[in-house]
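look at this fold:
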Amino acid sequence: MSDSLALLAAADPVREAELPGAAAPQARALKERILRADVVVAQPSRRRPTVVAVAVAAAVAAAVMVPRSLEREPVAAAAVLERAAVATASATPAPAGRYAYTEATTITPATDTDEPPFTALVPAVQETWIAADGSGRIRTVRGKPYFPSERDRSRWLAHGSPPLGLPPGSITVEPLPVSPDAAALAERDPATLDARELDELLNTPAFLPTDPDRLERLLQEYAKTKDPPAESMMFNQLEDLLTNPYVSAALRSAAYRVLARMNGIDLRGPMRDPMGRPGTAIDFPAGSTGDMRYRLIIDPATGAVLAEETLLGQPNDEVAGAQGTVLAQVVYVRSGWVDSVGSRPAARR
């Protein structure tokens, strides 16, 4: 057991009940099953206002000119993501017959929407062992819940201090359903697929197109079948592809290139993740009201996602706190390939 697992286990005073609230978002293939399995929370919408390049029309000429200061960030972000796309294109394929092991520290928001609503934040350490068919095991060690603001804590007390927490211990994960039609669906025009067919195809990464243009079009059609804003759903799907250990190097590379094209990409620059590892931070608009933002911290040299965060932009009725408060977080501590559930990769020397 790692030091972080031991520390959280020792500090865990949480009872096993959960807050009532909206169900977690639709099963998003592998990652949602791993990181949000059996957790009933109301996840805040995850986008912030789009970065808009201001066009200045010349009165004499018909040309449109974009100020250089507003050009820089999207162009720089695209360059960082292109570098990551090139790096990940040479990644080693997933070995057959083995389990993808991941250790991650997480923060999950738990929102009670009864009046007055409040949000608590629940830290945990999760270890996962996942086979190529999606089966495996998830082990969760809970930490002590805390509140993003004194207002949220006061409202929790006003509700009678209900228990907060995540399901502890280990759970078995069943294989993902395999669509017998995925190969045929992948050959069709995405505009002709209905919501069910699009879900089936997106849940079968082996058949997703590795051409960025085709992947982008497929994700656009998929996003139309979900709650707006469409860009949020596209970003979530791209993030899933970037963190799924069984996605091919070519598909992960295409996902980075589609991400680089999206309006609103905001380069935050060099940043260390919560473990202190150096990376580059990319922000994206969060939610339909734009009062939050979503952040990826990546290693452009390898294409690896080091951490992902949801950050508070403006307080609202369900959650208060200072601007930039971390409301959700996944930090990928370590990963590797093992031969059996319960075993761990050898420690690096």
